[in-house]
C-alpha cells in the first residue's frame, strides 16, 4: 500500500500542528494611557503595566521583582477605556506577547515586552469624590475590551508606578 504525502501528514499529525501565543497579566498601570490615531483614523490606546513578585534570593532574603509590559489596544474600545487607565490602577490584560529589541540613546541593546491586547478589564472598586462636593461615592469598575489589531512602537520603561 502506498500512502500519499497528504495521508502521511495526517497520520503524523503535521497538518494539525499550530502555534499559540496568549498571555494574561494582572498588574498595576504604570504609564497612564495615551490614545493616538493612525493616518486612517484608527485609535490605539497605549499604556504600561507592572507586575510584582517576591522570591527568596540565594541567601534567603526576600527580593521584589518588577516586570514591565507595554500594552497596545486598538479600535473604538481603545477610546472607551483610556480614561479609566490611571497610574496605579489594578488591571487585567489578555493578549499576544512579543519581545521587541531596540537600542537606547547610549547605544545599549534593550528589550521590551509588548502585549497586543485582546481583552482589558479594570479590577476592584475605587472611591471617587465628585467635583465640588465633599461626598464620596464608591464606583465598581469592570470594563472589558476586545480587539485584535496592533502596530509597532519601541520605547523602554524604568520607573515603578507606586
Descriptive account of the structure:
- This protein has one domain (19-140): Nucleic acid-binding proteins (OB fold (Dihydrolipoamide Acetyltransferase, E2P), Beta Barrel), CATH 2.40.50.
- It contains two helices and eight strands.
- It has helices spanning 5-12, 76-82; strands at residues 23-29, 34-37, 43-56, 62-74, 90-103, 109-122, 125-129, 136-140.
- It starts with a helix and ends in a 22-residue tail after the last strand.
Structural descriptors:
2 helices, 162 residues, two-stranded antiparallel sheet, 5-stranded mixed beta barrel, 8 strands, mainly beta, OB fold (Dihydrolipoamide Acetyltransferase, E2P)
Largest sheet: 5 strands, mixed, barrel
Please give the radius of gyration in angstroms.
Answer: 21 Å
Please mark out the parts with pLDDT under 50 across 5 or more consecutive residues, or reply none: 127-157
Instruction: Tell me the number of structural domains.
Output: 1
Whole-number mean pLDDT? 77
Topology:
Elements: H1 5-12, E1 23-29, E2 34-37, E3 43-56, E4 62-74, H2 76-82, E5 90-103, E6 109-122, E7 125-129, E8 136-140
Parallel strand pairs: 4-6
Antiparallel strand pairs: 1-3, 1-5, 2-3, 3-4, 5-6, 7-8
